Amino acid sequence: MEQPLLGGPPGARCGAPPGGRWWYRALRSWLPVLSWLPRYSLSALRMDVVAGLTVGLTTVPQALAYAEVAGLPVQYGLYSAFMGGFIYPLLGTSKDLTLGPTAIMSLLCASVVGGRPGRAVLLSLLCGAVQTALGVLRLGFLLDFVSYPVIKGFTCAAAVTIGFGQIKNLLGLRGVPQTFYLEVYYTFYRLPEARLGDALLGLLCLALLLTLQWMKSSLGPQNQGGPQNQGGPQNQGGPQNQGGPRTLEGPRTQEGPQNQEGPRGSRAARRFVCGAATVRNAVVVLAASGLAAACLTSGFPVFTVTGKTAQGLPAFRPPATSETTANGTVVSFLEIVEGFGGSLAVIPLMGVLESIAIAKAFASQNDYRVDANQELLAIGLTNIMGSFVSAYPVTGSFGRTAVNSQSGVCTPAGGIMNSAVVMLSLAFLMPAFCYIPKASLAAVIICAVAPMVDYGVVVELWRVRTSPPRSVVLDFLHVSSIDSTVLSELRALLRLFRLRGAGLLLSRVQPSVQAVLLAADLPGLRLTDDLSAALQGHVDELSWTGAQGC
Predict the structure, then answer these.
(1) pTM, full prediction
(2) CB contact at 8 A, 330 and 324
(3) What is the Cα–Cα distance from 424 to 518, expressed in whole angstroms?
(4) Please, are residues 98 and 84 in contact by the beta-carbon 8 Å criterion?
(5) Which residues contact 174 (CB under 8 A, 6 or more apart)?
(6) Does residue 474 come out as left (phi exceeding 0), alpha (psi in the -120 to 50 range) or beta?
(7) Binning pLDDT at 50, 70 and 90, where does residue 532 land?
(8) How far is 250 from 246, CA to CA, in rounded Å?
(9) Which helix (H) or strand (E) holds 330?
(10) Coil, helix or strand for 448?
């Protein structure tokens, strides 16, 4: 089995010139493409092309659907979907990650820009500038301070908001407000007004998507003709699944000629089902569009369609820094930024959190490393350059990244083919997109966000909430020095924890800081180097040191 080009051991100097010139090492740290391009092969190219085409067929319908979530014309979803495929291969450190519009970023964008494309494009520029600045200043470690409950709570809430918001499109309801609690009320209030055609088509598309997904998962990893990491990074099987080229057929068995027809036909059927299920979004949207076009041309407009869209590729130009309202009032750049408010911090932060979490998950399972600072730089520059082609803010997509990994991608170059598919769609298929039923796009979005609602984590967080804490873990990895004020506050904190029957654990303390702590002789001080064991509550299994070692 051929190994992925990004899966070498840490510190491998692939393609470095003899002597390891310092300037080349510095350049390679800023341009990771130099780590894998010198050993790029034809077999890797073949696998990247296959993966890129597969992801592209998934990206196009999802981008159109996510533009609806953002409250923008559908073509803006495609405008946002192709720049990442050209920027990320140069600067990114994950072979699997795919950048583009996502459900969460689309929801955040809708809450800020209010359906105004000009402001959405300017928001992409400003978010990219914030993310790029964080990457250049090497502040990726700040993301470690965002807690797990905050991320999971936000993700689940966003999934519920997005999914419920698509019910009105699924059923063809009109006049439903955007505010969530009003949206819930008026969705149920207007249920008798549901359009029969939209409702039937939407439920049919939803059932077909779920059926294809179930058929793919029921085949089992060993039969799906691709990498064994089905269903996302948590199921990827470990380092042996490197994402490199794989054979579509399993191990050959010694069979007589009379017995070969059955297995060969079975393998072909599995590959067909797996392929159709992988690009199920495109299959469903294409079938629904064909049905809607046939009905419209026959004089039976029974479905609500997206309508006329702009044709061709977007012009390459800087985003407008001001706008003119309908009554002729000019809104300046500073007024627009003031209107964005705190979203200029929240949206970039959520973008990089989502992307880096996905990249690290796939890197862990596929046995390679990602650089958080370099990921910040790649995402930031993608958003900056995307604003020049009328894109709104993008980040890493979990679903498309999983498809990319399952398709056997070898390098980030697979994103180039993905972008080519999107650009070809913009150039030649936009007239056909006017026939896409909104009900089919709603079904795509609902199926995409449903896995984000993690019921298990709600139970886990509730159990943590109702159980008294045994200890609190503080990670001191990035603390390089402390003074007498910190020692005094730490002594008071330890006393407070003892009174409450809980423990305070300090993890991964630097040697210089540890020497100061031990010299201060703090009662009840406990130190450990094993952060994961401390977080999992294995207190008795840890080896503690300290002034009053417990």
Answers:
(1) 0.73
(2) yes
(3) 65
(4) yes
(5) 168, 190, 193
(6) beta
(7) low
(8) 10
(9) strand 330-331
(10) helix
